[in-house]
Write a structure and sequence with these properties.
Helix content is 48%, strand content 13%. The chain is of the alpha+beta class. The protein has three domains: 70 residues, no CATH class; 84 residues, DNA polymerase, domain 1 (Orthogonal Bundle); 175 residues, Intergrase catalytic core (hpI Integrase, Chain A). The termini are far apart. Strands 1, 2, 3, 4 and 5 form a five-stranded antiparallel beta sheet that branches. The chain contains 14 helices and ten strands.
Length: 386
């Protein structure tokens, strides 16, 4: 094959802007013969693209296709989809500036252990729906928990949705795919109010009110240990939840509540009185002072508290092993048993939606329906007797 030397380019459309243009390219071989090709050039998102054709007709057709796609918002960067998922994740991280530290740690773990090993070396435009479905099935076969599979699928969906919005790929292959269930949904475990009292009696006085805050009010652990003196309004009998103290890799971070919404939690009279006494004994006279601290005055670390305080107290109170999340379930069960409506429980616990409350705790309201049925019986009896 004879070597090729480039000749001066002759442009059909000389203006190069964001609009697609077609250029005539003439090149001459050493034997004096010439050939012609047609190059389509266009710009998108500040980047220049080009593609060559042997005929002017095909080049103009491509230019029209590019312009129509850009006008309709369906244009896809032909080269963008060749980026591997691992490389794209690096770009994606740059815009994730609003994540809480615990969420960042969780995402990194899922990426490292679940997503990158499977799809890291795969170009974005080569990841298919079948690939995603098989990945989820393989995770289930490997014994991964339902929550882990769901979290992994949701994170991959989030990354590829970002790539779709930025026109790296034309379709998100995770769309419409549901993570397979691996276990039967279990009803949340909770204990009775009397058992909460026994646990409170078994811990050091410094932590007694914390047990009640968890078991009667349903605060999340990070909300409870993050409470500051200025959050406690004893005359109004309210706790104002405006931030939490999140522990990630041994460090504490003050971050917004889980739903990013502040809320007021109602205190029963007995707990307002005892919380006032607790503040007088253990809390510094500073609006920002933590309400619950270790004996050294430091923030409470979950692992240390469970080992040194919580587990021994459960044994002493003759209560089966119990997590802090199950104490939150306990609070919900106590509220339901006392006749709280679902909406009130939702507001007290700080759920993002009443649908969340209903999904987790609807079984706790079965007794209320039994009472309603009993009222129907009494109404029927009274009507017939009359």
């Amino acid at each position: 094959m004879l070597p090729v030397t480039w000749h001066k380019e002759t442009r059909v459309h000389a203006r190069l802007s964001d609009m697609a243009s077609v250029q005539r390219i003439t090149h001459t071989r050493q034997d004096g013969t010439t050939t012609t090709s047609w190059r389509v050039r266009w710009r998108d998102a500040g980047q220049q693209h080009s593609q060559s054709y042997t005929t002017k007709t095909n080049a103009k057709k491509k230019a029209r296709q590019v312009e129509v796609a850009k006008d309709q918002g369906t244009y896809i960067d032909a080269g963008g989809g060749k980026t591997t998922l691992a490389d794209y994740v690096t770009e994606w991280w740059k815009v994730k500036t609003d994540l809480k530290p615990k969420t960042v740690a969780s995402y990194k773990a899922v990426l490292k252990l679940e997503i990158i090993p499977r799809f890291g070396a795969t170009p974005l435009n080569r990841i298919t729906s079948i690939d995603v479905e098989q990945w989820l099935v393989d995770m289930k076969s490997a014994g991964k928990s339902a929550s882990r599979i769901r979290q992994s699928k949701n994170l991959l969906h989030q990354i590829l949705a970002h790539a779709t919005r930025h026109r790296r790929i034309g379709h998100n292959p995770t769309e419409g795919i549901r993570a397979p269930a691996t276990t039967t949904k279990k009803l949340p475990r909770y204990i009775a109010a009397g058992e909460v009292d026994r646990i409170a009696a078994a811990v050091d006085d410094r932590y007694r009110i914390l047990v009640y805050v968890l078991g009667y009010l349903g605060l999340r652990w990070a909300e409870a240990i993050g409470l500051q003196r200025h959050n406690v309004h004893l005359l109004k009998r309210r706790l104002h939840i405006e931030s939490t103290l999140s522990e990630v890799d041994g460090e504490f971070h003050r971050v917004p509540p889980k739903t990013h919404e502040e809320r007021d939690v109602v205190l029963p009279v007995f707990l307002a009185d005892e919380l006032g006494a607790h503040i007088g004994r253990y809390v510094e006279d500073d609006p920002d002072a933590l309400v619950f601290t270790s004996t050294e005055g430091n923030p409470l670390r979950n692992s240390n508290f469970r080992r040194r305080v919580w587990t021994p107290a459960l044994v002493a109170a003759d209560v089966e092993p119990l997590t802090m999340q199950q104490m939150r379930h306990t609070a919900a069960s106590i509220m339901a048993s006392e006749g709280w409506p679902l909406q009130a429980v939702k507001e007290q616990l700080g759920h993002s939606s009443i649908l969340v409350t209903a999904d987790v705790y609807s079984h706790l309201f079965d007794e209320s329906r039994d009472e309603l049925a009993a009222r129907l019986d009494r109404n029927h009896t009274a009507t017939n007797d009359g």
